[in-house]
Amino acid sequence: MQTIHETMGMGAIGPASVCDLRLSQMQLASLTAAAFMGIISSSYFWGFITDKKGRRWILLRTIVISLTFSVASMFMVSFQTFFIMRFITGIFVAAPSFVAPTYLSEFFYTKLLARVITHMFMFSAFALIYMPFMNTLFLKPGNMDFEWEVVGSLTIRPWRLLGCAVLLPGVVALILILFLPESPKFLFMIGDTEKGMSVMNWICRKNTGRSLTKDQISTLHKFQRFAQVKRHKADKHFILAMLSDAMPLFRPPFVGTYLGACFVMFVMGMIANGFGLWFTSMRNRNYMRPGYKGQMTFCDILFEPDPGLIMEPDQDLEMVCNDAFIGFADTYYLGILNFTLYNVCWLALFKVPRRAIFLVGQLIITMSGFLLLFIRGNLPQLLALIFLLSPPLVINAILGGALLANVPTYLRAKAMCICLMWARVGAVVGTILTGLYIHIFCERLLLMISILTISKIACSTLSLSL
């Protein structure tokens, strides 16, 4: 939830800050992508360190630092400082985004991982419900309307407080992790048998009410010896060690399926997190357009000039900056559908092969993209847009579960961070392309999304052999 708030939350906070920070369209697009850029730049570093220092060790430190910089960013008074602070926030929020599923995966049987990780990512749907609730509370006209001058050019307006309020799930996560142990698989991997046994004994007591049996202890000792051998590496220069540690992922038997998974993540990130980051802004623009829109397409409503507007020729006409939002009900629908899809897929994984779920999800995305090109009417367009943006998040969750279930422990964090890094690259590409060019090439952008989804069906089929 914290990662979604720090990245997708800028879809509302960014446009709301336009007047205060005097942002151009290019600056707004860059600002919304800043956290994604930070995530991309640091992802592999955190993956490497996580496999050295530990999952819980990294989670505790990076959550604290990311929360600190995120709060500080909400009090910046210029585009440059706001961008830098959001970028630094992204650097540190990168770790929880992939370490959390890696950490969780090491407490469960391999056969359960796909369902467990899908269920975990379901909380991103809660984030998509929590965000519009907070957006409505702070940004909807009539709820909060204040402007407090503090010092210099710093004024406190609702969007700044919103940026602090959405961090609550991150604070809750930090508190919960304080009461959890380190990953037992990681402890066995680094040869810390005593702590590993202690954690496994804690898990056994929680699950069964009894301590480990002698047979279980003997089996764990065998696993520890196997895991420690896998972990052993000679000392190398730091940069060379980072590169060499990831090389097994790009050699047989992993290379083909892993590259396919990275490409799928890239396309899904571009759609769900890149194009989707502008969902709230696009729906707001839809509702703010006056007149009858029943016979207009999605792109016409957003970007076709309104001939009914009266242009004032007076020289003394003063342009007023408008950063208001009409409402956030449509974002609730997006979150609710995501929540429903996660649960449907979680149940389907008990009986239906992952490959079938992937193919159905991709067909839904492709059809929704094509439908947005020509369908009319507010409700059909809203449904098509929601069905375009929701399945990619679920597909990435299922793919993440498949990846974690089939990659060895000593490669797990690095594999997950590189794969999710490509999802963030897609998000940056998607949000910048949408922010800069959708008003010019709206139909072409939707067509590109649909074609890319079709082209990656082959890659997703390959990656699901994991």
Walkthrough of the structure:
- The structure is a single chain.
- With 466 residues, the chain is mainly α.
- Helix content is 74%, strand content 2%.
- It is built from 22 helices and two strands.
- It has a two-stranded antiparallel ribbon with strand order 1-2.
- β1 and β2 form a beta hairpin.
- α7 packs across α20 and α19 packs parallel to α21.
- About 4% of the residues have low confidence.
Alpha-beta classification? mainly alpha
Tally of alpha and pi helices: 22
**Topology pattern, helix = H, strand = E:** HHHHHHHHEEHHHHHHHHHHHHHH
Strand content: under 5%
Instruction: Output the strand order for the largest sheet.
Output: 1-2
Largest sheet: 2 strands, antiparallel
Low-pLDDT residue spans: 229-235, 309-319
Mean pLDDT: 82
Query: What is the gyration radius calculated from CA atoms?
Result: 23 Å
The N- to C-terminal Cα distance equals 27 Å
Question: Secondary-structure blueprint of this entry?
Answer:
Elements: H1 2-7, H2 10-16, H3 18-21, H4 25-53, H5 55-73, H6 79-105, H7 113-121, H8 123-139, E1 148-151, E2 154-156, H9 158-165, H10 168-177, H11 184-189, H12 193-208, H13 214-231, H14 238-246, H15 255-275, H16 279-288, H17 298-303, H18 329-348, H19 354-371, H20 378-406, H21 409-455, H22 457-463
Antiparallel strand pairs: 1-2
Question: Which characteristics define this entry?
Answer:
two-stranded antiparallel sheet, 22 helices
Q: Could you write a compact summary of the structure shown?
A:
With 466 residues, the chain is mainly alpha-helical. The chain contains 22 helices and two strands.
